[in-house]
Amino acid sequence: MEFYQKTGEPYLDGITHLILYLMLIHRMSNKQQYCTLGLFWPGSLCANMIVFVPRIVVGKYGSEICPAFWLKMPFLLVPIWGTVFLFSRPRDMPLVGASKAECEQKKALIWSPLDLLFVVYLVAAMGSTIFKGLVSWCSPYAYMTEYEPYLKNLMLLLLFHTLPMLGSFAYGLYTSGCTWMLDWTVYFASAILQCQWSYIGASLHPHTAEMYRIPVTTLVPVLLLNLLYAAGPVLLILHCKREPDYFLSISPVGQSNNEKKLN
C-alpha cells in the first residue's frame, strides 16, 4: 500500500468515493432509487480522470509511467460507462399534477426571485471563468502571481467544459420544461466539487511549492470566492430537486387521470 500511496492517488477514492460505492450498493440492494446518487459518482471521477490521466501521459514524466498507473484505467472507463448508462435510462421523475406545474411555468423569471438569483450567480460564474481562463493563458496581468498562482492547472477543464454548462443552466432556469436540468446539475456539481477540492487543497498544501500557494495577504477573499464557486452548483441541485415543477414537461391535454402526470 505504501508503494501505491506514492505512485497513485488514493486519498479521495479511499474516502469519498468509497462512501458513494457503499451507498449505491445499499440503495440497489434495497431496490431504492439511485440515479441521483449514481450521477454524483461518475461526475466526480470523470472530472478527476480526464485531467489526471492525460496529464501523466503527455507530461514530462510520461516516459516513466509505473505499472500502478494502469490501475487508473478502470477508474476512467467505468465512470464513462456509468454516465452513458445513467443518462440513457428513464429518469426518476416526481409525480406532480400538470395544473400545478403549468402554473409554475407561466411565471416570468422576475417573479421567481430564487431562479433569478441563480441566473445572476451563473452569469457571474461565467464571467469569473472567462476572466480566469484568459488570465491563465500567459497574460501579463499580475492576478496569477498575486492571487491564484496554481490557477493554470485548473482552467483548461473549467474554460472548455464548465463554461458551456453554466450557460446551459442559465438557459434552463429561463426556459421552462428543461427536464435535463434535474440530472445534469447533479453530474456537473460533483465535477465542480472534485475540481475545487483538488485545486483549493493543492493551493494550500504545505508540500506545494511556495510560488504556487495562495499568498497569505489574499487568502481569505480567494478562498471564499472559490468556495462560492463550488457551493453554487450544489445549491442549484437542491433547488431543482425541491421545486421540480418548473423543469418537468407537461403531458398533453386529453390523457386519463392516471396518465395526467408529468413525463
Write a structural description.
By secondary structure, the protein is mainly alpha-helical. It folds into two domains: 2-88; 98-247. Helix content is 66%, strand content 0%. The chain is built from ten helices and no strands. It has helices at 2-7, 10-29, 35-58, 72-88, 98-105, 113-136, 143-146, 152-174, 181-204, 219-242. Helix 6 runs antiparallel to helix 8. The longest helix has 24 residues, at 35-58. It starts with a helix and ends in a 21-residue tail after the last helix. Residues 253-263 have low confidence and may be disordered.
How are the SSEs placed, and which strands pair?
Layout: H1 2-7, H2 10-29, H3 35-58, H4 72-88, H5 98-105, H6 113-136, H7 143-146, H8 152-174, H9 181-204, H10 219-242
Helix pairs in contact: 2-3, 3-4, 3-9, 6-8, 8-9, 9-10
InterPro entries: EXPERA (IPR033118), TM_Tm6sf1/2 (IPR059044)
Transmembrane segments: 34-57, 69-87, 108-134, 154-174, 181-199, 219-238
Organism: Cyprinus carpio (Common carp)
The overall strand count is 0
Helix proportion of residues, in percent? 55-70%
**Arithmetic mean pLDDT:** 79
Following the backbone from N to C, one meets helices and strands in this order, namely HHHHHHHHHH
Low-pLDDT segments, ≥5 res: 253-263
Structural class by secondary-structure content: mainly alpha
Q: What's the overall geometry?
A: globular
Number of helical segments? 10
- The share of residues in extended strands comes to under 5%
Radius of gyration: 21 Å
The major pleated sheet works out as: none
The count of domains is: 2
InterPro entries: EXPERA, TM_Tm6sf1/2
Protein name: Transmembrane 6 superfamily member 2
Membrane topology: Multi-pass membrane protein
Organism: Cyprinus carpio (Common carp)
